[in-house]
Structures
1.
Amino acid sequence: MTRIRVKGFKIWTQKKTRKDGSVWESRPYCEHRATGHKIDLQKKPLGSAEFFAECARIAAIAEARKAQAPKPGTLGGLISAYFQTEHFANLADATKRDYRKCADFLHPIRDTPVSAITTPLMSGIHDKAAGKIGWRRANMVRTFLSQVFRYAIPRGLIDRDYAAGVIPKPRPKDRPYANRPWAVEERAVVLERAAPHVRVAVALIMNTGLDPSDALKLTRRQIDGNTIWGVRGKTGHEVAIPIGPTLQAALDAAPAHDAVTILATSTGKPWTYNGFSTVWHRFKKKLEAEETVQPGLTLKGLRHTVATTLREAGLEERQIADLLGQKTPSMARHYSRSANLADRNRITMETLEKENERRSKVVKPFKKTVKL
């Protein structure tokens, strides 16, 4: 079969597997690397004339936007200058993507002169963003602008942070909390029904409290004896997480593979965050349709689950924060200094193990909602 390649585009195949690991569906995907724009291959089949025409159209738009260099003394100029700072370069990949999306939202007003930027103008942009992309993303735009202004002030590009005086949008009272903790029943059914290569990933996040993106990136080198050594991608904070019996059993039962990462796909390749998210979303939707889990189940919710379980078990917030990597350590901390943290976390993990075991013993079948 001829492999199709298009410069500037990422083309890959996503496979769906059964419980035994066999593939029952294989679907291609295509995405423009620079902008993240995806092509609907159902409407424009891979390799067809329509497909290549769409690739050319997307590439042309990206090049045209790239050629439109922001003018000095404008909002676009400030944003461009911020993207060149060391601060932006050191941000987590997820935060960079979010900030790029904020810049895309602000693109239509990129030529706004710096002299016209005021707090009322920022407030109006914030309100418009809330109406178009929602309260959470609007607050992200506000945060992004504040960062842009903050790093532009010492360079003499603007005189103050005009976004600082804008009040963040409150979370709607009727909106369910994102990343809610998982119920014991939900944890049991997911571990029972998930494919082996997905089950070990969920078990790793469930028994460490790691952020999903950090868990997927863990390499074999980061396991030393019975401790996971790592750095939170979002904050750069070190974590030292002891491996308890439950997690060790899950790792031992995982499908064998040769990837450098601890977790891998059914084909033995390292997961991408988008790839795992897609597989997880389809699996979760199937369970929701069967009413074996409640809506709102997220992978990041497992991090909240760990924190909630430990808090309910009586542990102090500082102990929980140490395990989740929420302390502010020096980036130059050596493993010898982190060893003390690992010892303290070992006690924390023992509590989590015992509490999870106690709760699983009293688990009852998940009750389906009765539809009237």
2.
Amino acid sequence: MKETEYLKLYIDELSQIRPCSTEENLTLLGRMASGDDDARSRLIEGNLHIVPEIVTEYEGSGAPVSDMLQEGNMALMEALEAISGKETDPESFLAVRVRGALEEFIRLEGVESLAAHKLEDEANRLINLTRDFETEHERTATLSELAQLMGLPEDEVENIMRISYSAISLGDSNSTGQKPAKDPLRDGWGE
């Protein structure tokens, strides 16, 4: 299901739930402060519509809509725990908290994405350098030789190899019955 369709379906399902009015929010907050769990449940349910409204603003940010909805719902529940009861507009308070959580989530998603691309670039560079070395020297490079070629410490090259090999292993479910790929960490670098 496409992200836009998922969001539309989620909004359609929420349309079955009556949103809380400002007056109802204020009454329920007072009851929740007294320990009324039913009031807390109704506050969550009656304010869930806030989350997809805000998620819609961030469509196309690169973060999956389903993850943003989940993050927004968690932020909504946390905001209800943090609300003081002195707010005259609880819905605005909740919206600010949800928006802030989504912006932080999207920022972190971007950082993770950049790190993944950097690792992918380094893995591709390592593959190319390894191939070139084997062609030129007619043997497999040692870890120290690869580290020197990459201009990185051996432990960083080893980490790139370990992560790359793990990704290849996961991609090769071995359902073809073929022998697994050579593991340079287990089998050595031709030393």
